[in-house]
Inverse folding.
């Protein structure tokens, strides 16, 4: 046993001499395990993590009924997604195991064709607590089309302004454009809401439609509202000259009245039972000694203007003819008589 130990020590010394060229003493390896060296540092116990929080959502409509199928997205402060999900049949959704902090909640879908989504909102999560949120989705607005028409022809009229409201509140004001129509979104509060419409300005040339009309509209549904107007009655403008063509003509004069002198030249109707001479009928010739002016038969109207001209011309011609005849006859008689001299004898 000891001999083996000695031989092993000699071999080790020879090996060390061959490597370094110097004889050094190296300890002999033993089969016994080495004792662990105690560490100079002691590990600190881990700090326990803060308690996690959560967010619980309850989704309803304006009537308080739960809405299922609404989709939500939860983002942390840097904008990273930390959770997403949909509400169940009771309108519930929970985001668990959230570190305390501020989160951003986004509704991506209402899950209903009648409801709209809400705006984004911030949620604060505290250690070991649950943030409860009740979210109410509004109904989608109704699409309203306004038309203004002529009550007789049905023609669409521009320039009609109306107020539309519910209860004592005005919710929308519309004015028809050049095509006689206008459109807008009308907020609704239930599945079937009643509204009123009142015209506050009539189209030009039309009377104001004073009564209020009522109609109903549902969420997201189109509805048409029509207001009719009657034309404003027009009154005739006064005649600037002060005369009117509708005034009756002058009353005919009584029988036997004489025509007034210096009148307008219009003849008055002849009295009943008398006849008025025609201007074209022949006029009897007047004697040379008579007045040249023709006499007006009793009970008839005097002729004025162009009707008296033929009478005057005829009378003058007659007088000239009579005068010429007289001169000719006198000359003939003078020529036929014998001439007498101073003694009374015929020559």
């Amino acid at each position: 046993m000891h001999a083996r130990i000695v031989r092993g020590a000699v071999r080790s010394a020879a090996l060390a001499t061959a490597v370094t060229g110097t004889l050094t003493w190296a300890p002999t390896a033993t089969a016994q395990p080495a004792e662990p060296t105690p560490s100079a540092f002691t590990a600190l116990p881990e700090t326990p993590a803060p308690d996690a929080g959560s967010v619980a959502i309850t989704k309803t409509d304006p009537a308080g009924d739960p809405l299922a199928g609404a989709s939500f997205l939860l983002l942390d402060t840097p904008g990273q997604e930390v959770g997403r999900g949909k509400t169940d049949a009771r309108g519930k959704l929970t985001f668990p195991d959230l570190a305390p902090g501020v989160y951003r909640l986004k509704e991506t879908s209402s899950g209903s064709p009648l409801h709209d989504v809400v705006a984004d909102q911030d949620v604060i999560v505290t250690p070991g607590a649950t943030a409860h949120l009740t979210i109410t989705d509004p109904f989608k607005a109704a699409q309203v089309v306004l038309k203004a028409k002529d009550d007789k022809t049905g023609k669409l009229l521009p320039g009609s302004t109306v107020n539309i409201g519910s209860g004592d509140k005005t919710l929308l004001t519309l004015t028809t454009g050049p095509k006689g129509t206008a459109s807008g979104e009308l907020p609704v509060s239930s599945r079937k809401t009643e509204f009123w419409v009142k015209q506050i300005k009539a189209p030009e040339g039309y009377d104001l439609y004073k009564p209020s009309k009522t109609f109903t509209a549902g969420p997201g549904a189109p509805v048409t509202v029509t207001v009719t107007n009657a034309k404003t009655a027009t009154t005739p403008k006064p005649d600037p000259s002060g005369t009117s063509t509708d005034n009756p003509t002058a009353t005919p004069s009584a029988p036997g009245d004489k025509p007034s002198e210096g009148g307008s030249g219009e003849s008055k109707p002849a009295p009943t039972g008398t006849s008025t001479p025609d201007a074209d009928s022949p006029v009897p010739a007047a004697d040379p000694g008579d007045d040249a002016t023709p006499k007006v038969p009793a009970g008839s109207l005097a002729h004025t203007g162009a009707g008296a001209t033929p009478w005057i011309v005829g009378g003058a011609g007659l007088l000239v003819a009579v005068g010429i005849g007289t001169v000719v006859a006198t000359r003939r008689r003078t020529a036929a008589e014998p001439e007498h001299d101073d003694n009374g004898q015929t020559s």
Q: What stands out?
A: The two ends are 243 Å apart (CA to CA). The helical segments are 2-20, 309-336. DSSP finds two helices and 14 strands in the chain.
